[in-house]
């Protein structure tokens, strides 16, 4: 092994340790928030020892106990079969979703080309400083503005690589100027503001409220549905992300709630927001199963990664439309304490 190879291997080891420490700190931080909010601490010395023993026997080290402890604080009890988020993100996901393939999910400007009718059609895209219409015909800056104004009244502008609702602009087209597209040298997708189904709009009309659907490519080539939750905005926020103040609840395949309303740290807030909780109780999302089936079908068209988190809206015609898909940072930890265990550990760890 030459010097460059040794240096590369050392870099990988150090990066993995850094990432593990970062995830460990995140678990401790969220667990502290949960304990502060609930006023109770479920994980005493006895429970912690049980969790560490399970972590060691199942994942080869007791160091994965913090996420399992967080799940326990949220659930109120420890459940054998849970998959710790740090082991999932650092060990499994690195193998399942190789970076050279997963990074494609960051290319929002490319979605409509690969996923065609399932993806929201853009009004235009900007790639490498050049503007194109939705059919990849080059258009000038002057035509761009005229085309947008003639098509829609409001647009959403997103950057390639944007994450968790960051770097999103909502712009009225009558006030639109080319400088809004040229503030920096970024690839942009320019989409119409989607008219969502009235059932979703009732939850929060100011945001596009989306389904997060997780699918997994099995070793036999089939694609499995893992879970689905609904995200919706709050207090006039234009985005539905929980980390931006939004709420969520898990759904079954029929689009009916499996849980109450949850916040960004995974706690149920039904008592704090009784009107919203009552609305969720009678909720039934139209075309939810169709949305899941579309995600499964389109995952089969991209078998280069095994785990995908899809963001799907239901438009005013009850049709599922893919907003984004995520193969780089597709989360799963919310599901484990509420509807998990969601994984067959014998299968994925063998």
Task: Please explain how this structure is put together.
The protein has 350 residues and is of the alpha+beta class. The protein folds into 3 domains: 3-82, no CATH class; 99-108 and 197-348, D-amino Acid Aminotransferase, Chain A, domain 1 (2-Layer Sandwich); 121-192, 2-Layer Sandwich (Dna Ligase, domain 1), CATH 3.30.1490. It is built from 12 helices and 10 strands. It has helices at 3-38, 45-59, 65-75, 85-96, 99-102, 111-114, 141-151, 198-201, 274-281, 288-300, 335-339, 345-348, and strands spanning 124-127, 130-133, 154-159, 168-172, 188-192, 210-217, 223-232, 247-250, 307-314, 320-326. A 5-stranded antiparallel β-sheet has the order 2-1-5-3-4, with helices on one face. Helix 1 packs parallel to helix 3 and helix 1 packs antiparallel against helix 4. The longest helix has 36 residues, at 3-38. The protein is globular, with a radius of gyration of 22 Å. It starts with a helix and ends with a helix. The model has no long low-confidence stretch (mean pLDDT 91).
């Amino acid at each position: 092994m030459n010097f460059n190879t040794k240096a590369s291997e050392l870099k990988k080891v150090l990066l993995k340790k850094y990432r593990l420490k970062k995830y460990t700190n995140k678990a401790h931080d969220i667990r502290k928030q949960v304990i502060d909010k609930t006023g109770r601490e479920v994980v005493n010395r006895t429970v912690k020892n049980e969790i560490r023993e399970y972590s060691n026997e199942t994942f080869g080290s007791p160091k994965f106990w913090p996420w399992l402890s967080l799940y326990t604080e949220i659930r109120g009890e420890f459940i054998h079969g849970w998959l710790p988020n740090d082991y999932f993100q650092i060990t499994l996901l690195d193998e399942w979703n190789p970076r050279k393939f997963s990074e494609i999910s960051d290319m929002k400007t490319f979605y409509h080309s690969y996923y065609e009718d399932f993806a929201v059609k853009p009004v235009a895209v900007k790639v490498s400083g050049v503007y194109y219409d939705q059919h990849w015909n080059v258009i000038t800056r002057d035509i761009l503005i005229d085309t947008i104004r003639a098509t829609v009244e409001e647009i959403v502008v997103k950057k390639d690589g944007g994450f968790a609702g960051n770097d999103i602009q909502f712009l009225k087209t009558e006030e639109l100027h080319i400088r809004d597209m040229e503030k920096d040298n970024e690839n942009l997708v320019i989409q119409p503001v989607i008219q969502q189904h009235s059932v979703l709009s009732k939850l929060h009309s100011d945001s596009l409220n989306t389904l997060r659907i997780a699918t997994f490519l099995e070793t036999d080539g089939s694609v499995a549905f893992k879970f689905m939750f609904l995200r919706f905005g709050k207090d006039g926020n234009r985005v539905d992300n929980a980390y931006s103040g939004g709420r969520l609840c898990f759904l079954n395949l029929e689009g009916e709630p499996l849980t109450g309303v949850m916040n960004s740290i995974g706690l149920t807030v039904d008592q704090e927001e009784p009107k919203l909780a009552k609305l969720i109780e009678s909720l039934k999302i139209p075309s939810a199963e169709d949305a899941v089936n579309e995600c499964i079908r389109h995952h089969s068209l991209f078998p280069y990664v095994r785990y995908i988190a899809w963001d799907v809206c239901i438009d005013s015609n009850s049709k599922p439309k893919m907003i984004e898909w995520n193969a780089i940072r597709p989360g799963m930890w919310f599901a484990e304490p509420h509807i998990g265990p969601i994984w067959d550990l014998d299968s994925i760890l063998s």
